[in-house]
Amino acid sequence: MSAPRTGWWRWVPLAPATILLLLFLAGPIGYCVWIAFTDTQLTGQAGSEFVGWDNFRRAFADDDFRNAVGLTLVFTFVSAIVGQNTLGLALAGLMRAASRPVRTLTGTLVITAWVLPEIVAAFLLYTFFRREGTLNAILDWLHLPSQNWLFTLPILAVSFANVWRGTAFSMLIYSAALSEIPREVTEAAEVDGASGPRRVLYITLPMIRRSIGTNLMLNTLSTLSVFGLIWAMTRGGPGNRSQTLPVFMYDQAFLKSLIGYGTAVALLLLLVGSLFSVVYLRLMKVEL
Amino acid sequence: MRRAARARLAADTALLVTAAAFAVPLLWLVLASVDAEADLRLRIPSSVTAGNFDAVLTDEITFTPMLNSLLLCGGATVVSVVCAALAAYPLSRHRSRWGRSYLLTILFTTCLPITAIMVPVYGLFVQVDLIDTMYGTALFLATAQLPFAVWLMKNFMDGVPVVLEEAAWTDGASNLQTLTRVVLPLMGPGVTVVTIYTFIMLWGNFFVPFMLLLSPEQLPASVSIFTFFGNYGSVVYGQLAAFSMLYSAPVLVLYILISRRLGGGFALGGAVKG
């Protein structure tokens, strides 16, 4: 009496996961699409009406929304694409050349910053960038001009915070990728007399290009949804000068009680995310 | 050989500079937590004290939020890992077009920005009366982490040879028995990694409980630290640092456990890469 290995009910173990995903993920996404086309408000309104594309039209005409899109682009570009990605790659590369104790020390510190809860990281970087904080103390000591970073350059401060917190992920991906390059390849290039930078440019980078693609996608996707870090450091301020899309969405939906409008913004964010996900899946060329 | 030594020295120097930049905020955390007069600047405490820890080790500040975090994230982790293990089994063992599309959808979902759906989730939770309930929030957290848990679990399960199961089947074991008695024990390290990774991600999650839980006595540490210290006029920085250390300690310890088990933290990067 052997257990059945054919028939539809070998798929039954999928049921619990599928039910959860439908109820708590697909449900809200569907609801999101519906609410985005209504004028739902948090309080003081009996019903909500279907308003078509009004919320989206309003968004594209809204200076605050455009400001949020611009800041999201700056935040993503500076912290994910330039910061985490490049620093992660540089660290992974340097670690292969460095001595063991230095490698362990750096790896431990970078990974610790990553494993710390988001809100703790936000507090730490907040104290670091404050006017009375450590960064200015260091600048004073070096006789360099200090300033109130969270006021003058809030978006750069939160971008650096995101680099501090997120670089470990890129470092891990690139360490894995670099360790898979066969030794003979780099040795052959060395014998042929290729200099260090040329070896990196023409041999190493092309060989890990799939990891670079994967990493850029994943960094962008996780950076697009950063909320707690920015909220705890600046609350999107001063004014709206560090208000990225997730913070803008929260602000509109809950502080200004415009659930419909906030959801429309959320839907746009979700669409951008889906687009990146599809590109990512293409890049991975998953073998299932 | 001298060129190699020079290259090593250059790499060491560059890494040490970066390491110092990463270390400064962490050093502030450690030093401020034992400094009676801690402020925003990194400095050596003039006298070391345990007063900050004494001050925050109360029911209101530490014990209740940490217990809430444990219930919330522990519960969500159990749900997530059990569902992921069940789902990964057919996905790993039966090849079909249907399973392939299911996995692709799962992988697609792992990438979606969960932040974006929190507004509609809040709306739905209000309508079905799940708002401000621990189990509702835990179920949502479990679901948010589920796609990645399924993906990781499936990859680990692929590594268990199918021959052993066939032996179990001929001995008359059911599918569930095969999974719990043969497959899961064999992929013990894999299950541990998925469990701990899920728990670490949930422990640090701020936005979900921030949106879905309202009563102060239900808040987990990630949110209570924010409401408690973020809204106070004059923050006692030493206490903030002490509490941050207590709140971060469990995930740091857990991370060390899985990274040891897998020979360095680099295995997770490989798993993520797929």
TrEMBL record, chain A:
InterPro entries: MetI-like, MetI-like_sf. It is found in: Cell membrane. Signal peptide: none annotated. The chain crosses the membrane at residues 12-37, 68-92, 104-129, 149-174, 216-234, 254-281. It is a multi-pass membrane protein. Residues 65-280 form the ABC transmembrane type-1 domain. It holds the Pfam family BPD_transp_1. Gene3D superfamilies: MetI-like. Keywords: Cell membrane, Membrane, Transmembrane, Transmembrane helix, Transport. Belongs to the binding-protein-dependent transport system permease family. This is Sugar ABC transporter permease. It comes from Streptomyces kurssanovii.
